[in-house]
Amino acid sequence: MIRLLALLALAAIALPAAAQTTLEKIRKSGVITMGYVDGAAPFSYADTNGEPQGYSVDLCRTVAEGIATQLARPQLKTRWVKLTVQDRIEAVQKRRVDIECSTTTWTLARQSQVDFSLMTFVDGASVLTKADEPARRLADFDGKRIAVMRGTTTERVLRDSLGQNMVKAEVVTINAREEGLSLLREGKVEGFASDRTALIGAVVMRRAEGDMFRLLDEDFSIEQYALMLPRGDADFRLAVNRPLARLYRTREIERIYSRWLGPLGPPSMLLSATYFIQSLSE
Predict the structure, then answer these.
(1) Stretches in the chain below the pLDDT threshold 70
(2) Burial, 36: exposed, middle or buried (Cβ in 10 Å; 0-12, 13-18, 19+)?
(3) Domain 22-122+223-277 class?
(4) What is the pLDDT of residue 3?
């Protein structure tokens, strides 16, 4: 009996401690940590005071309020961490942030590394050009240069689309939208590929006299945005989805859309359908 008890005690010591869930960590610390990518207006960017702003940021603020209510922690604090397009997935994987609030497209490959909330937006990838550029479609970029942010779904789909259409364009990889816009202004590339709405936001945020740009007449991909979450934490995913579904169900999402995207026109039929389908009841 003594030997059996000793073996059981050793086994208990050898067992790893249960991993702390995201909700437990937030409850104990009183802080929820949210990441965002600067320079992705109107979805996420830092204002003149260095404070995060944008459509996705407002969604995350609503999520934080919802989690505070669910945890009965009305004084829950939010800590914002500035990320880049290149390190955002790793930041969620290594739990440097609890949620990533920007323009991340939900893909099956990424879902093998992180988890995702309900969809928050639907966009399409396009190419920004100078107004006097004759190219109207992706097929018109044969022999031309197109800038695109490395590590994005747009880079992968752009390369695939060029290959499928046998368009021999040079793909110039960059790290940020501001860099792509500068290359386009300086004539070092003929096009800058990214998500359509983010391209419009980049131009609006960096107005310059004499600059005239336009977008291609067609999109070459569809981008389904969602908030990135730690993988394998179903309770936290549910806690995040509850306030998002409530936003869609009560149509309060229209206020947030109008604030950040209203000048671009009403939500597309596809986006409206996305909101409607995801207005899950409790």
Answers:
(1) 1-18, 205-210
(2) buried
(3) alpha beta
(4) 55
